[in-house]
Amino acid sequence: MRMGVLDIGSNTGHLLVIDAFRGGPPLPAHSYKEPLRLAEHLDADQAVTEEGVSRLVKYVVDARAEAEDKGCTTILAFATSAVRDAVNADDVIARVNAASGLDLQVLAGDDEARLTFLAVRRWFGWSAGRLGVFDIGGGSLEIAVGRDETPDVAQSMALGAGRLTREWLDAGRTHAELRLHVRSTIADEAGAVLRGGAFDRAVATSKTFRSLARICGAAAASEGQYVRRVLRKQDLSPLVEQLATMSAEDIAGLPGVSPDRAHQIRAGAIVAEATIDLFDLTELEICPWALREGVLLEHLDAL
To answer: CB 3.0–4.6 Å: which of 47, 100, 141, 279 could bond 159 by disulfide?
Structure first.
């Protein structure tokens, strides 16, 4: 069957049209995305502004039309931290659903971590053993760990690359101050993960980690999703120092960095380095599947 998965993130709205086959992996057929930057459309009271809501409504209406043009009869729509954390989240969801006819749902942070973990588990299989999965989004950092398809620990922290850029770097705080904030926040929550012992496989997913890996020499997306890609500590640490001295325009010129995300790569790199250090890792393997695939897989399992 052909289905659409609509992901409303803190940075981007992304519709992924997928062909699902019984006994086979879901295959991407079409992609339609737009840089909404919802996290930057919050007022002083942490409500999504009228401009932000209007942009979101228009995109979702257009995304539904796009999905239907591609033959989708089912569209799974969800929103993550930017909408989840907004004080007017219920109103935003109601307006989107009324205009689009979809059933946009807000995912809790631990559900983000759990569903991303499911996607990574299915990608690598049981031979991966005890999986540690890390995902830096625009608004939050998700961590999940376990040996089964449901993680033993699923955490979400307010350490997204866009959020930290806006609330710390753009606000005039130093890289040293942000580094301490990130590391202390992760360290406070790390005990539940570390008590289970070392990972058999440590995996990172989603755009920020993919961009950092590409800057550090990983294969380009054009080489296909089955090429092994890793982000190594020895490459990331000097990059963090380098990025601190670069402008967003210069960062946008690096391989794997899209112009709409260049401004938040510095904060993302600080979070990535802290993750590798605090969990005593030498590298993170990049997984091409993430939250959208996890949402789809859970839906297919329920059919």
So the answer is: 141
